[in-house]
Design brief:
This protein is mainly beta and 444 residues long. The strands form six sheets. Strands 18, 19, 21, 22, 23, 25 and 28 form a seven-stranded antiparallel β-sheet that branches. A hairpin with an 8-residue loop joins strand 11 and strand 12. It is elongated and about 145 Å long.
């Protein structure tokens, strides 16, 4: 309830000397309340907190009409002993099981209940005590009910007309009114006379003899006629106005690249992405290839990469194939991706399983096949072979077939460049070696 105003009645109950009648008004949001309510009345010795006097008086139901209600309350003999008292009222709609609403503030008890205290038998009058100090001012009582409005009196005589006041400032301009409806279209005017005939225009340029027809072409010369561009611009083929195939080159000296599929990119020369989407070949990956799929990333020379998706970024869940080669007439030769100096680089924070198969032949025809398998990982720029305990000791190849048991193959890592190093030692003679390496790669 938004608020309550309560008044004490001016009469006492006749049947029981400790009982009295309480009249109050109940309002919600400033409006009088109507209905039946369950009420509880508690008597206290202070406006806030304090101790309860007597028992709780419960009244149910209490009829409230136009905000007014009357109840008979009895807190027992001795509840009113001349000390200040305050009444706390709690209520809820009749029949409700919701908790009672406590009305605030407590109501100061008026004069009528104190008449009960005055009516109790008194003993012999004692000597008059000294005058006590003035008490502190009590809390302001609740506002009383509004009195009845008297009828309006007769109108007074009309006064003299006052002087005309000065003109007030001009008011603001009002809003522009809506546009009125369009007027009807006027009648069409008469047709004018035909103007003189203009001069004949110049003859247009002849059509190109090199145009390609949609129904096929004939009379072409191989090596002369072609579909394509004569500058560095890429040649693009589209379906549904989206790129499906693109032939590109970075310049006259570069090997063209072929980009198929959707959202695929090649930054190196001689690359091929046959299809799929979101695949990429980096600028360091010349002659790399991706057959299709999604989320593959080639970063090494001649890398063949494939993925069917990724965790976060392209290349963090893929497999790759490489072909390395090496030749020489020395006791130890290294195999490279391009045959002369490019190695397999392992990306930062990547682990890969790798398997290498190496086939070797010397100038006299002696041959051998070797296999190396192991785990390689790069952690924050540190490249290592976890299963090798000693520093600078790599993985040695296992002979699958050899005609010379003095030959050895070894895989090492170059931590300074994060690259794999594959070597063959065959003693003296002229050798050629080719290796196939396949990897499974995971990045995190």
């Amino acid at each position: 309830m938004a608020g309550i105003v309560c008044l004490l009645a001016n009469s006492l109950a006749r049947a029981q000397m400790s009982a009295f009648t309480y009249q109050g008004t109940l309002a919600n949001g400033g409006q009088p309340v109507n209905g039946a309510f369950e009420m509880q009345f508690l008597l206290y010795d202070a406006a806030t907190s304090g101790a309860q006097i007597g028992s709780t008086a419960a009244v149910d139901p209490v009829a409230v009409a136009n905000g007014l209600f009357n109840v008979s309350l009895d807190f027992g003999a001795g509840a009113f002993d001349g000390s200040a008292r305050w009444l706390e009222i709690q209520l809820r709609p009749d029949g409700s099981t919701d908790p009672f609403t406590v009305l605030s503030p407590r109501q100061s008890v008026g004069a009528a209940p104190y008449a009960l205290f005055a009516m109790t038998p008194a003993g012999p009058k004692g000597d008059t005590g000294p005058k006590g100090d003035p008490g502190s001012q009590g809390p302001q009582g609740p506002q009383g009910l509004m009195g009845k409005t008297d009828p309006t009196g007769p109108a007074g005589l009309k006064g003299d007309k006052g002087d005309t006041g000065s003109q007030g400032p001009q008011g603001p301009m009002g809003n522009t009114g809506p546009t009125g409806p369009a007027g009807t279209t006027g009648p069409t005017g008469p047709t004018g006379a035909t103007g003189p005939k203009g001069d004949k225009g110049d003859k247009g340029d002849p059509g190109s003899a090199d145009a390609w027809g949609f129904s096929g072409n004939a009379g072409l010369t191989e090596g002369v006629h072609f579909i394509g561009t004569t500058d560095a611009a890429a040649l693009e083929f589209r379906t549904r106005n989206e790129t499906a195939l693109k032939l590109q080159t970075g310049g006259s000296s570069e090997v063209p690249s072929l980009v198929g599929g959707q959202n695929n990119t090649i930054a190196a020369e001689g690359g091929v992405i046959a299809g799929g989407r979101q695949n990429s070949i980096a600028a360091t990956s010349t002659f790399a290839a991706i057959p299709g799929g999604q989320g593959a990333n080639a970063i090494n020379y001649g890398q063949f990469a494939f993925a069917s998706g990724d965790f976060v970024s392209a290349g963090d869940a893929q497999m790759s194939f490489y072909v390395l080669r090496g030749t020489g007439a020395f006791s130890k030769i290294e195999l490279y991706l391009d045959g002369s100096g490019k190695r397999i680089k392992v990306p930062n924070n990547t682990t890969l399983w790798m398997e290498a198969m190496i086939v070797i032949r010397n100038s006299s025809g002696t041959s051998g096949v070797y296999r190396i398998e192991g785990l390689v990982k790069n952690v924050d720029g540190t490249l290592s072979l976890p299963q090798v305990a000693m520093a600078n000791q790599g993985l040695f190849g296992t002979s699958v077939f050899t005609e010379d048991f003095g030959w050895t193959t070894q895989l090492n890592v170059d931590d300074s460049t994060d690259e794999l190093k594959l070597e063959f030692d065959g003693g003296s003679g002229s050798f050629r070696a080719v290796a196939r390496i396949r990897t499974l790669e995971v990045g995190l």
